[in-house]
Amino acid sequence: MVFGPGRLAFLIRAVGEKLLSRPGPGSACRVISAWLGNGETGACNRMQKAVVRCVPSESKLSISFTLVGSQKHMQRDQSEQLGRVLSRIASNALKGQSKKSKKNRTEQPAAVEPLVRLSYGDKVVAEDVINADAWQDGAVLEVGDVKYLVERNPPTFKDVELPRYIMAGFPVCPKLQIEFGKLEESDFQWYKAAKDGASADAVESWVEAGSERVFIPTNSDIGLKLKLRCRPGNSQRYGSAQELEVNCTVEAGPGNCAFDNRHLYTKKIIEESLIRIVSYNILADVYAQTDYSKDVLYPYCAPYALQIDYRQNLIKKELTGYNADIICLQEVDKTVFSDSLTPALDAFGFEGVFRIKEKQMEGLSTFFRRSKFSLLSQHDITFTEALLSDPLHKDLLEKLCTCPTMKEKFLQRSSALQVSVLQSTKDPSRKICVANTHLYFHPKGANIRLTQIAVALSHIKHVACDLYLNIPVVFCGDFNSIPSSGLYHFIKSGTISEHHDDWVSNGEEERCNMSLTHPLKLESACGEPAYTNYVGGFHGCLDYIFIDSNHLEVEQVIPMPSHEEVTTHQALPSVSHPSDHIALVCDVKWK
Known about the structure:
Elements: E1 2-3, H1 5-20, H2 27-36, H3 41-46, E2 48-53, E3 60-67, E4 70-77, H4 82-104, E5 116-120, E6 123-125, H5 131-134, E7 140-143, E8 146-152, E9 156-161, E10 175-179, E11 182-195, E12 204-210, E13 226-233, E14 242-245, H6 260-263, E15 274-281, H7 285-288, H8 291-297, H9 308-321, E16 326-333, H10 334-347, E17 350-356, E18 362-369, E19 373-378, E20 381-382, H11 383-389, H12 394-400, H13 404-411, E21 416-424, E22 431-438, H14 446-467, E23 473-478, H15 486-493, E24 495-496, E25 516-517, E26 522-524, E27 533-535, E28 538-540, E29 543-548, E30 552-557, H16 563-566, E31 584-590
Parallel strand pairs: 1-6, 2-8, 15-16, 22-23
Antiparallel strand pairs: 2-3, 3-4, 5-6, 5-7, 7-8, 9-10, 11-12, 11-13, 13-14, 15-31, 16-18, 17-18, 19-21, 20-21, 21-22, 23-29, 24-25, 26-29, 27-28, 30-31
Helix pairs in contact: 9-10, 14-15
GO biological process, one term: nuclear-transcribed mRNA catabolic process, deadenylation-dependent decay
Organism: Microcaecilia unicolor
Cofactor: Mg(2+)
């Protein structure tokens, strides 16, 4: 019996009701077994699978299955009629049988094209039904005597990767991309290798080691390999499992890290009325791996401790140990954001956004805890583009045009400002404007930084006060300015004189005296630490978390590492600290 598109639509609805009445993995299998008259799910489980990926927004669907011992992956138009696909499958099956006969050098009667059909329940799907409607979950594809259970859009891992360097005591966070499923509804099983016997060539066996998405190896695992078996899932079923074996063995950790004692203050996620904020320049790999960094900036740091795979272990453990609600990071490599930080922090409940600098491979990232905040909007800018194109900065641009040398230098800089408006998941009336930046670094660039911060503060004010009608501001970053600088004074006081010495920080040729003001009431939540950057030739306070004192107040500042901890290995970075900067961490509360 065959049926057309109208009858098919009715059956699909009926099947959907049956499937929904049988929740959980295997429900579609049980339903199709009953319709096929198998009497039990075992026959269904023994069927081969034909996996169909069909997304409404795409023009094609894919059909993947094993045919005559060969894996087939067909791409077909969703609007194409089913009959053309079935004809192609029959032709492929015939070719496969012919090749098999030649390979085996057997004389057999000429192969006959097998009967190929698609059935749904106890009905055969008409060949004029289009692919998008024909290939339904739970249908059965028959190719001669072989039957395939169709799985349409099962949970699938599109990408699974494990870190290339693993240390005892540090979280192992796989990079995972899932389609048609949720990571929190997927299964994870970790194994560690065990030798069967004492000889060097003994066969390895695998011992179960953990069942969480993140695995933390112990010292007893040093020298062993790890393996992950993961099965993608959703609330209805599981997809095909994947197994990955780590190429490296577990290495010993560095011992006590500079951030370990700080974690004693941040063991738990704080209550809803508080917000824990982290600001941290994590040292971009693109800078750490230069010869200048290795030979001049950080000659005291062991070369292996500057490797990104090593440092990422420390960074992920440090960040997750703070149990923060908002994390603002600077000097984030594009690949580090996508391949390392996002998978790791996602596993701990964070969502993140990234803003790359112009003409650079690194930028800014802001992460927020999903249980506390949702992302309402983004308002990122680069300082050069905003100054030239946004009427908001018209007066500042006119002043800068009177100083062509400084203007040209300003426009050569690639610094950016990341602005994210977050909304409380518990109280939608509570919104917060989170800004994140990394200003020009040069010691004689105070005049450039002043101009950058003027653009930044005008833009933040526009977002927080004009677009969102006076919501609180948190402004984090590496400002490359010490507390005695004009920039720090300007942010806190709201004004700077045109006669300030910082306007001539790089000589008279770049002098551009400007009197600036801003209306925000900002204070440094962590005060003025002795230093947030400690390298061989310099130490000083360059990083800040500024909060809106009209709406927020400080509840707690997490103590900085002791001087002894910072200088254990002379300076930063080191084998026990991944960056040349130190993270700022504080808890604030709504007024």
